[in-house]
Each structure stands twice: as structure tokens, then as C-alpha cells.
């Protein structure tokens, strides 16, 4: 290894350590508790997810006691760590259950808006021995069978236990990247039973053709219309032929659940959500909303698989309703656009839209 390469590695290690340190990278400006504030709620949820990332990094680096970097990420907001969620396949920490220990907020009327428990999930870690397992989970995500993994089973059982013990009000789900996919899957599973949990999903993966990255708006709009027409036509044909396909019924049943999605246009992992919801509105405006209402319940690939007699998993990204927050602040690189740190910055330029099916 040459001298320049060694120096670069050392700089990257210092920067990584700084990002893990709450005193250097956390939102110290959020000293007043205000659970009515969307900025405060978003920032707290993001920091609790970051706490899970650092829990696993502490485990990998054998940082314990006063050397552990994870606790300030929840202590600052008056939470305590109840239970780390550990993947039985590799013993890595992938989630955590936090409980809010109530000091009285500055605005006493906001106490009812605070969570009692938050179940948070981290995304993929490229460092340490968790990477290979995280990579496997990403493959399951692409194949639409994340629900068949032990990590999902541990997550859903933890959430069901909390809900059974304390009820569903003031229970939050939170996750980033792969972790947001897990939180989304848990939230959808609970919603199908009538339990609607508040969810904060940061940079949630949208596994589909990257149409949103096309710069020409006319081409992009044309492709979306064509895709909708083909998808709706195939779905209608399969319905009339009485083929088994329960996606549409499930989709309608989920329409009352409104997860909060946080996406960045420069992040190709999640940016497709922008076009997914905006296209639905555009189709309504040009008078063909019924076509899109049917098309948005299905994935074209899944319909083709079903038509061929093969079992197709329900695509995770198919959700009927959402509160979509888009970060319009410029990002220097993909790593920044996809990172969790952006979501607690105080200078964000955000656009919020609500989509109800």
C-alpha cells in the first residue's frame, strides 16, 4: 500500500468515526422537545435509526461502557433502549425497541403526539461481518420474498408483542434503506389486520425500472402511461379469467394506512416513489384515473409471472397511500443523497405531499 492510499484510508476512518459520534454529527439544535413539529418527529425517528447502525458498529468494534457511541443517539431525546433485535443468522444487531421516558415537553399540549415505543431498523452496513447477511436480505428484497426471512419474523413478532401489550396508539416504526423496507413490510402486515402504526421510512427502496431518472418529461410521462395501460389491461384480463390474484383486494384494504416516506430525487434507490405517486395524480387530471387506479395495484412483472402459472410475491413498494416528503436540497454525491444523516439537518428544503388512494 502506498503512502497516499494509507492516508486516504485514515481520513475515511476519521470521517466515519465522526459520523458515528452524536456530539459531532447529531442534531444538537433540537434541544426543545416539540412532538407537534414534523421536523422534530422526523429528526428523532432518523436518529433512533442511526442508533441501531451505531449499536451494530459498537458490537463490531467491541466498544462498551463509556467507549460505546450508540447511547447518545437515543438518550438525547429521552429514550431508553429496551431490546436490541438480533439476527439469528449472524448475531448482528439489525433493530431496536426504544421506550420514551417522559420528561414534560416544552409544549405540554404535544405530549399526546409523542411515541411511547419506537421500533427502528437499520439498513445495509458495508463494514464488518454484517455485510454478507445484509447483502442476502437485499437479494430477498429484490425477489419480493423478504417476508420469508428470519429477520422479518423477529421484527414482526417484536412489533406484535408490543402492540398486544400496550395497544397500537403511539407506537412508531422507523427504518432506513433496507431497514425501511423491513419497517414497510411490518407496517403493511399489521395494517392488513387493521392495526395502523405510524411509520417513518427513510430512503425506502423502490425495486422497479428507474423511469424517474429519465430527464425528458414527455418521454418519462409516455412510458408511465404505456406501462399503466398494459398493466391495467393484463390485470383486467386476469380478473375476468378468474385467475388467483389477491393483490388488488389487499391494496384497497391498506388504503387507510398513511406511512411517512422520505426520499431524495438524487437517490435512485428511492426516487421512483416520486413518479409513482405523481403519475397517479396526472392520470386523474387527464381523465384516465380509473386505468391508473387498477394499474397501481399491480406490478407488470408479477402479473406476467402469475399468467405463466408461477407464484409471484407481492412487490413491497405497492402502497396505496402515503405522506411523501422530498428533500430538494442539493446532494453532492449518491452517498449523501442516500444517507440517513440528511434527515436531521436544520437547513433542509423539503416538499411534502399527501396521497390518499
Automatic annotation (TrEMBL):
Single GO molecular function: hydrolase activity
Gene3D superfamilies, per database record: alpha/beta hydrolase (3.40.50.1820)
Sequence ranges assigned to domain Fungal lipase-type in this UniProt record: 121-195
GO BP terms, alphabetized: lipid metabolic process
Keywords: Hydrolase
PANTHER family: ALPHA/BETA-HYDROLASES SUPERFAMILY PROTEIN, ALPHA_BETA-HYDROLASES SUPERFAMILY PROTEIN
Name listed for the protein in its UniProt record: GDSL esterase/lipase At4g10955-like
The species this protein was found in: Coffea arabica
Taxonomic placement: Eukaryota, Viridiplantae, Streptophyta, Embryophyta, Tracheophyta
